[in-house]
């Protein structure tokens, strides 16, 4: 029996991008459901399995080396794992970086999805396929909530590549009968979020400010609004879509939107500090194009049983408290798997826009 008392299923799933935020949470979710889980990771000079360790799931996931741009490795991952369900989460997931590496982002977030779909079509078209699509597809110009029918106006190389893979997923569904779903997920965050994303950058820096380890939080566009939810609740929808009778596309969101400024203000509130004394705007963090406003309408996925609980205030608290606890433990000499202690600090990282200014 699983933790919630439901009978365990014995299915096999392959997750690409198992070392990322969503990959780690999805691994834990599926392992707890009784799945045999395989996960792909790419070869790096330094291992980065800290999220799987953090969730105590590292020992339970079967690891397969694969790179999105290497078709043979994807083919092997499917041949070895024999999955019933493939969750394609691997991607160059940072919108900001996509302006600096547009070609690589196109390969990884666009073409590679066709590589995977082709592999499934040829090897076993009965495999179900989940594609990590995104609210970035909606892009700029929306003034109200977006549902599955809203217009796509991508505003970054990241979003353009994800739009291509969104359509390819639909095309393989309609053209080849593959059970393929697009999860159009709005921003979802957690203490396992990468440090370059704005929410975690804020929670980590706020924690350091509270402990006297940092004074300033340098941010870009404070006015941008996002529909931010809690990642562990979002990954549940990936599985839910794959259990339906027919494949479809679903928006996943809290249906609520807040600005970066509000996030920073609330985060400093959690530790009793005034955000205005610490936040500085730095144009290094502005993008050539930025989506001003994103808000979802997730009625469709809620109709099939999704019922998230964590709201904006709750999310900010979870993230700040966890980063605070990590830095406190660190100060007390405790060492545990975690990213921030190895992060170089963004002052050390040059951007091509800084070069342009000289
Ligand atoms: P993440 O933490 O950045 O994880 C991305 C994963 O992709 C990592 O495991 C990464 O491996 C892997 N990867 C990157 N390039 C690869 C390559 N060339 N070959 C193989 N693996 C590669 O992102 P996330 O937040 O978990 O997001 C998961 C997916 O959902 C992504 O496709 C993202 O675009 C999409 N999405 C995310 C959100 C969100 O708010 N989080 C919203 C909508 C859609 P390394 O660990 O080696 O870097
Ligand atoms: N990263 C970052 N750093 N963003 C900043 C900063 C900063 O210092 N200052 C302001 N922002 C603004 C960005 O300009 C953007 O408008 C907003 O904060 C959110 O930025 P990110 O956290 O980097 O996320 P994102 O919305 O660009 O992309 C994330 O969500 C997408 C779904 O909408 C990623 O997870 C994507 O992979 C995902 O598809």
What would you say this structure looks like, in words?
With 358 residues, this protein is α/β, with parallel strands linked by helices. Helix 7 (198-210) packs across helix 11. Helix 1 (21-32) links the parallel strand 1 and strand 2. It has helices spanning 21-32, 50-54, 71-81, 95-100, 102-123, 157-176, 198-210, 231-242, 260-270, 299-303, 312-331, 352-357; strands at residues 12-16, 36-41, 61-65, 85-88, 128-134, 180-185, 188-189, 217-219, 225-226, 229-230, 249-252, 258-259, 279-281. The protein starts with 11 loop residues before the first strand and ends with a helix. The protein folds into two domains: 12-189 and 227-252, NAD(P)-binding Rossmann-like Domain (Rossmann fold, 3-Layer(aba) Sandwich); 198-226 and 258-293 and 311-345, UDP-galactose 4-epimerase, domain 1. The strands form four sheets. A seven-stranded parallel beta sheet has the order 3-2-1-4-5-6-11, with helices on both faces. A two-stranded parallel ribbon has the order 7-10. Bound molecules: NADP nicotinamide-adenine-dinucleotide phosphate and guanosine-5'-diphosphate-alpha-D-mannose. Residues 17, 19-23, 42, 44, 48, 67-69, 89-93, 108, 132, 134, 185, 187-188, 194 line the site of NADP nicotinamide-adenine-dinucleotide phosphate.
């Amino acid at each position: 029996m699983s933790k919630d008392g439901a009978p365990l299923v014995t299915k096999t799933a392959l997750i690409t991008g198992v070392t990322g935020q969503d990959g780690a949470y999805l691994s834990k979710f599926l392992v707890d459901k009784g799945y045999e889980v395989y996960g792909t990771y790419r070869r790096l000079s330094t291992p980065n399995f800290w999220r799987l360790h953090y969730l105590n799931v590292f020992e339970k996931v079967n690891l397969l080396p694969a790179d999105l741009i290497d078709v043979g490795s994807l083919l092997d991952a499917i041949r070895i794992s024999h999955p019933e369900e493939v969750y394609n989460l691997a991607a160059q997931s940072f919108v900001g970086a996509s302006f600096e590496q547009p070609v690589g982002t196109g390969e990884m977030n666009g073409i590679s999805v066709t590589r995977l779909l082709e592999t499934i079509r040829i090897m076993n078209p009965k495999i179900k396929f989940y594609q990590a699509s995104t609210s970035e597809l909606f892009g700029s110009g929306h003034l109200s909530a977006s549902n599955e029918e809203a217009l796509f106006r991508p505003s970054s190389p990241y979003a353009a590549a994800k739009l291509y893979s969104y359509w390819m997923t639909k095309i393989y569904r309609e053209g080849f009968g593959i059970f393929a779903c697009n999860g159009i997920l709005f921003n979802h965050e957690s203490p396992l979020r990468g440090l370059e994303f704005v929410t975690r950058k804020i929670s980590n820096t706020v924690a350091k400010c509270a402990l006297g380890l940092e004074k300033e939080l340098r941010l870009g566009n404070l006015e941008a609004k996002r529909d931010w939810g809690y990642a562990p609740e979002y990954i549940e929808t990936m599985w839910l879509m794959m259990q339906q009778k027919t494949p479809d596309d679903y928006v996943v969101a809290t249906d609520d939107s807040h600005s970066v400024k509000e996030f920073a203000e609330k985060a400093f509130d959690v530790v009793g500090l005034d955000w205005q004394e610490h936040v500085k705007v730095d144009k290094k963090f502005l993008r050539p194009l930025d989506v001003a406003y994103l808000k979802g309408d997730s009625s469709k996925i809620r109709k099939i049983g999704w019922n998230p609980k964590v709201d904006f205030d709750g999310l900010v608290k979870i993230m700040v408290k966890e980063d605070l606890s990590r830095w406190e433990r660190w100060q007390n000499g405790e060492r545990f798997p975690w990213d921030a202690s190895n992060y170089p600090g963004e002052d050390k990282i040059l951007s091509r826009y800084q070069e342009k200014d000289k």
